[in-house]
User: What shape does this take?
Amino acid sequence: MNSLRVKLLLCFLVTSFTIWAMLSIWAYTTTRAIVEEQTLSVYRSTIEVETHSADINITKVEMVADLIGNLQDMEQYLSGSFTSPYDEYRIAQNMLTHLENLLRGMGIPATLTIVSHDSDVKEIIPIDVENMIRTSAHQNTYLDAQGQVSIALYQAKRFQPNTVSGAPTNWYVDATYGIYGWRQTQLDVQQGSISLIKPLPASPFSSSHGVIKISMRLADIVTGVASDQQVYVFDQNHHPIIVDLTEEIPEIEPSKEAYSTMIVGNNVILSGKMRNGWRQYHVQPYDVMELFEIIQFQFLLLLVLSLALSLGFSAFFSGWFVRRIHAVRVSLHRFEMGHYDHRITVTGSDEIDMLATSYNNMAEHTNRLVHDVYQTEIRSQRERLTMLQSQIRPHFLYNSLSAIVRLCDRNDVLLIKEMAQALVRFYRISLSKGQEEILLQEEIDHISAYVQVCSIRHRDKFTMTYQIDEKAKRCYVPKIILQPFVENALEHGMDPTLGVLHISIIARVDDGALTVEITDDGIGIENDRLEQIQNDEITTGNGYGISNVRERIRITYGDSWGVSLRPNVPHGLTAQLMMEARESIFPGFVP
Assistant: This one.
């Protein structure tokens, strides 16, 4: 049915899928191009705003640095132009107040570091105190109360090479060699900040008194930075000034346009040129698919629903054509699995109905044939079982009658009566009203009658014990399967030198298998003879009865069941009978 349905749907599927795929590709590329263009336009506007904002912030910092360099109070304090400690305190207070106002005027949290070339200038080191100026004989300290600005003044000896000091970098030494301007010191790298380093201007009457460094956070200079962005700032020569040290510096090609957007791999690079010639680059992940997920989902949903609707109609109409063929296919499969009684309902007279009628005729003929063959096989097996059982009964009868004759010679009436009663019970169970299978409990009663007869012949020469599970007693077994093993133990296992012969029968059920073991401690069987019995090479004499039982079990249960023999230590023999635990040996056949 599936093959026929696929063939009927093939043309429709190819056509539908081709149209669907072409429409999807066109819609995807068109929508992506539109959204990408709009997105890049938004990015371009964003970088323009951020670049303009960064220009303003940098200009403010540079203007404040120029004003600080021209501050008269700082010139007086660094040059030591005061006459008394009070005059020094007053100049320092005025200087810090002016510096605070200048830094606050930027509107950006900042740290001002002043390094004086004069080693006699008293240092001002910020500590965590509230709005105050403290002066001592060795240092002055100042910190803005709100933490917006911080001002520190150090002596140059803290920054000299090979000098162990509290200064985090040696940017001062670089500045004395003419390396100054905007840069990131080692401390800036750790704190995510940037600094403007600038020497103090020289006056007409003296040289420069030191170097200043104004530091502020990168996020306060370059505003609008998202959490997933990396920001890089390059100078006019395309040398990096500000980098995101959590990532390696990418290979960014310099752009000639004032503002540009570039898509590189899975990232978008936004570029904006600043008024001082610098260029800032913002690198962030870019996936245009995320930008139009809703549109894409709605479009794909519409296409899928359309395709599903078309497939539904096609499947419905094609199913109407193949439904009767499916019925034939199912019937053939059931016929293959052995259900010969299944028939197809015929409602018309077309080719499919003719095929169904032919199948019904074939199934009816096959069912009758199988039934006849099965019944013939059952009759054949029963006849063979009857023949094998008939070979066992005369053997024991001859021995018993011989024993009765000997008892008659001795005129032992009581023993003759006892043996006759045991024989009656033995043959009553053997006949079993024509039944070919009996319960194991009945088989145990049968062997008990046999043992009673043998105990008269072999008085006080052997003992018999039974260990039969309750579940095993309810299992059906072929009748007369235990007597040959007990008979072999009595007839061929006794030896006066070994004393009394002990025979035991144990029966149990495990995992659907009935196991019966007959064990004796007699003289056993020679290895060569045991091997012949195991290989069914015995046709007469000792071992023939065992082969007879093995054959009956195989006929009844199949080749996987049977009899195995193993010698005991130090002497004796154990016979193990393996049979299927079931309620009936020949289940009835239902045509």
Notes: The two ends are 30 Å apart (CA to CA). The longest strand covers residues 501-510. DSSP finds 15 helices and 20 strands in the chain.
